[in-house]
TrEMBL record:
Gene3D superfamilies listed in its UniProt record: Vaccinia Virus protein VP39
Organism: Breoghania corrubedonensis
Pathway the protein contributes to: Quinol/quinone metabolism; menaquinone biosynthesis; menaquinol from 1,4-dihydroxy-2-naphthoate: step 2/2; Cofactor biosynthesis; ubiquinone biosynthesis
Keywords: Menaquinone biosynthesis, Methyltransferase, S-adenosyl-L-methionine, Transferase, Ubiquinone biosynthesis
SUPFAM superfamilies per record: S-adenosyl-L-methionine-dependent methyltransferases
Name assigned to this protein: Ubiquinone/menaquinone biosynthesis C-methyltransferase UbiE
EC numbers for this chain: 2.1.1.163, 2.1.1.201
Pfam families registered for this protein in UniProt: Ubie_methyltran (PF01209)
Gene Ontology terms, MF aspect: 2-methoxy-6-polyprenyl-1,4-benzoquinol methyltransferase activity; demethylmenaquinone methyltransferase activity
Classification via InterPro entries: SAM-dependent_MTases_sf, UbiE/COQ5_MeTrFase, UbiE/COQ5_MeTrFase_CS
The keyword Cell membrane appears for this protein: no
Length: 246
């Protein structure tokens, strides 16, 4: 189905996003590799290395990975040290099912939990987690500022917020190539692999609407975070934002 993606009201957006990820869940990991040429793996590694979870924590250190999908960030984090636990929270059960199976296969039945929930109203108590991550998820959330407020609420004092997201490319020539690639190649690849080109067309368009790095940093500050900073990856195709609840 085509949804006329360009003129979507806030209330309808979540329904469309859910449709997209139900459609693609079983092929999601494969598509990530194909579309990014494997780069998403390096970007996720960069996020986890900047987050730097403790190698040997004296108490259990808790990560909440929101819009965690099939659990890429959670897996990297729990495998980076001892006494690390992750909760993957995603609105979409199809994505969580793929993630749960994968985690069990990799021996993470006990240190990674999967919970269905909305980034705009997280089903977790205040001041609970040591870190909150969201990778390629926040641009799908209809009210970004509400999601940032929720991130602040569920983090402990001293807790860290980190977001990995596609951004606006500002390198000459690369931006043109990137445009061509994303508007022509990605929807076709999506159609070929998942049979649903529209869903990938939507994903590409949602990247264009996302605030630039400086504006997004300002939104993170508005939610209450301190020492907000960001790093560009691969010429700014993606960026990592970081902030602290102090
Ligand atoms: N973090 C994973 C990764 O990097 O591979 C998955 C990213 S995937 C592009 C986006 C995820 O956001 C999907 O699994 C989707 O179901 C989830 N999502 C969309 N809207 C959401 C919301 N309001 N709350 C929580 N998750 C949401």
């Amino acid at each position: 189905a085509s949804f006329g993606f360009r003129t979507v009201a806030l209330g309808e957006k979540q329904g469309m996003v859910d449709h997209v990820f139900h459609q693609v869940a079983s092929r999601y990991d494969l598509m990530n590799d194909l579309m990014s040429g494997g780069l998403h793996r390096l970007w996720k590694d960069a996020m986890v290395s900047w987050l730097a979870p403790p190698r040997k924590s004296r108490r259990t250190w808790r990560l909440l990975d929101v819009a965690g999908g099939t659990g890429d960030i959670a897996t990297r984090v729990v495998e980076s040290g001892e006494r690390l636990e992750a909760t993957v929270c995603d609105i979409n059960n199809s994505m969580l099912t793929v993630g749960r199976d994968r985690a069990a296969m990799r021996g993470h039945a006990h240190d990674i939990r999967f919970a269905q929930g909305n980034a705009e109203s997280l089903p977790f108590p205040d001041n609970h987690f040591d870190a909150y991550t969201i990778a390629f998820g926040i641009r799908n959330v209809p009210r970004i500022q509400v999601a940032l407020d929720e991130a602040f609420r569920v983090l402990k004092r001293g807790g860290r917020f980190m977001c990995l997201e596609f951004t606006q490319v500002d390198v000459p020539v690369l931006d043109r190539i990137y445009d061509l690639y994303s508007f022509n190649v990605i929807p076709r690849m999506g159609q070929a692999v998942t049979g649903d080109g529209d869903s990938y067309q939507y994903l590409v368009e949602s990247i264009r609407k996302f605030p630039n790095q400086a504006r997004f940093a300002h939104m993170i500050e508005k939610a209450g975070f301190s020492r907000v900073d960001y790093r560009n990856l691969t010429g700014g195709i993606a960026a990592i934002h970081s902030g602290w609840k102090i």
